[in-house]
Specification:
Elements lengths: L2 E2 L5 H9 L5 H12 L14 H10 E2 L4 E7 L6 E6 L6 E9 L2 E5 L3 E3 L8 H5 L1 E4 L2 H15 L5 E4 L9 H12 L11 E5 L5 H9 L11 E5 L5 H7 L8 H15 L3 E6 L8 H11 L4 E6 L18 H13 L4 E3 L19 H7 L4
Parallel strand pairs: 1-2, 6-9, 9-10, 10-11, 11-12, 12-13, 13-14
Antiparallel strand pairs: 3-4, 4-5, 5-6, 7-8
Helix pairs in contact: 1-2, 5-6, 7-9
The protein binds iron/sulfur cluster.
Iron/sulfur cluster binds next to α4.
């Protein structure tokens, strides 16, 4: 069986090749061709001998994601890519955004998700599979090939919870930031988590360890959405087992260890999380460690639920909430809803076109 070469770090590839007496500099050449120059065929790696290209083809494969659908927002430059994973009938979605000189890719770590947050279409889609390192990286490499542009920023905010696919997610991060790979500065990468006990602490330990210097500046965003345990349990079922006090302790640990400020993601839900007590608690929380709060508009899911009731808000409601927070010295931004018309905005990824297109055999 051929091995998936994208699942190897440079160190692992060196070790593999050493067993066949192939020198380390050859591993570097191969790794650079795959992860920096984004070459998809061993025969196109012209700076290695033909015999080595032949050797690679006999040992490894270069898998590809199949492009199933591409939707382009009419209002922004946002694009939503729907891919099929190699060797499976499973979809994954990736979002491409261009704004103010930045090219950002919002990537997925799972096909679907089983955490069932009520504001998230991915949760309703359900869990299908943890992505391999290769499948995480390929979302980026395929889009580089198609768009002919390298991303400046990466956000792990697509389908799935990164800390539930921890090892593959972490390895993908290391490969993206490695000097022989895309060499993305880790401060340009944000990882979003719903907040899982002991994982934030582990992540802080991992990114500050000596061997992970390349990823030490990666940013962490917590999907907070409420500072009240009861309300948060209602919005995010898994938070029943991950109480806010425990998550806050881990954030303090994270900040002490990394020195990187935290982002809190907060969907504005009128009459649910915008009351005066919510403002007071957010002000208090913002003093815990350096942080900023991203206010996000609620993007309705296909599945109707009680959140529809709080979607009837005015611009004044949201601005008033933001003003109160600013008065309390909270650093707060209202996040733009990029790609809402193509269901590419926060909480909207559900591969809804996948079955339709597959059944009709109608590909892009
Ligand atoms: S918000 Fe994140 S953790 Fe919650 S269901 Fe959606 S993808 Fe899963």
């Amino acid at each position: 069986m051929l091995l998936d070469i994208y699942n190897y770090t440079l160190g692992e590839l060196e070790k593999f090749l050493q067993e066949d007496n192939i020198e380390n500099y050859r591993a570097t050449q191969i790794y650079q061709a795959l992860h920096k120059r984004i070459i998809f065929n061993f025969n196109d790696i012209k700076n290695i001998p033909e015999s080595l290209r032949h050797y690679l083809s006999n040992k490894f494969k270069i898998p590809r994601l199949k492009l199933i659908d591409l939707q382009i927002s009419r209002t922004t430059k946002t694009k939503k890519y729907l891919f099929e994973l190699p060797d499976s009938d499973l979809p994954v979605e990736t979002v491409f955004m261009q704004e103010k000189g930045r090219t950002t890719l919002c990537i997925s770590v799972q096909s679907g998700c089983n955490l069932g947050c009520v504001f998230c279409s991915t949760g309703y889609f359900g869990f299908k599979k943890n992505l391999s390192v290769s499948e995480i990286l390929l979302q980026i490499y395929e889009i580089i090939g198609l768009e002919k542009i390298y991303p400046t920023n990466i956000v792990y905010m697509g389908m799935g919870e990164p800390f539930l696919n921890y090892d593959n997610f972490l390895k993908s991060l290391k490969i993206l930031c490695s000097g022989n790979g895309l060499n993305i500065n880790s401060s340009k990468i944000t990882v979003s988590t719903i907040g899982l006990k002991s994982k934030i602490k582990k992540f802080a330990d991992d990114i500050t360890s000596e061997e992970n210097k390349d990823i030490k500046k990666v940013k962490l965003a917590l999907s907070l959405h409420s500072t009240d345990n009861g309300i948060r349990d209602m919005l995010i079922p898994i938070s029943k087992k991950n109480k806010l006090s425990e998550i806050y302790n881990e954030l303090i640990y994270y900040y002490r260890k990394t020195g990187t400020k935290i982002t809190y993601e907060y969907i504005f839900l009128k009459n649910i999380n915008n009351k005066s007590d919510d403002v007071k608690r957010l002000i208090k929380l913002s003093k815990m460690v350096p942080s900023n709060v991203n206010i996000i508009r609620y993007h309705p899911t296909e599945q109707k639920n009680f959140l529809e009731l709080c979607n009837n808000y005015s611009e004044d409601d949201i601005n008033e909430f933001i003003e109160k927070l600013r008065k309390g010295k909270v650093v707060v931004n209202l996040r733009k809803s990029n790609g809402i018309d193509i269901k590419a905005a926060c909480g909207q990824l559900a591969a809804e076109n996948y079955n339709k297109i597959k059944n009709n055999n109608f590909y892009v």
